[in-house]
Amino acid sequence: MKNTKIIIATLGILFSLHGTAQILQPAKWSSSASKSEVKVIETIELTFTAKLDDTWYIYSTDQDPDLGPNPTVFEFDKNNTFELVGDIMPMNVKEKYDNIWEGNVRILSKVAVFKQKVKILKPNPEIFVTVDYQVCTTVDGKCIPGDEEFEFNFEGE
Fold first, then answer.
1. Assigned fold of 26-153
2. Residue among 90, 99, 97 nearest 141 (CA)
3. N or C: where does the chain have the smaller number of CB atoms within 10 Å of the terminal CB?
4. Interval 73-91: pLDDT, tens
């Protein structure tokens, strides 16, 4: 009976510790638009920013996917209220040789910024964006995937 109580107490402690464990989120995302009110035929710029914890980095959108690490991928839900102008542009990308992948990787660290121009085609456009990414740490090489969703709603003609 005494052993059963000890086992139950131990399991209770373990489950409570597991329930309070924090999920590792080394990237904190935000977004902004160059204008809040837009006009039809106007081109605006959307900015996506990931603030990365110390020792963490994210792979660029222009990372060669055949090399191995997963590049950051932005997917815009298509609709008739806007169109993409060019490709998404990563800002301040660094290139370095990676022994694990045996090639040059393209990464962003500390603050990762990506910009996309869009042309407004109809009044009150709605833009939905999903980003899939992989962040890794320089401490032990641990990598974790992540995803975020963004929504832009505009007023205007």
1. Immunoglobulin-like (2.60.40)
2. 99
3. N
4. 999 999 999 999 999 999 9
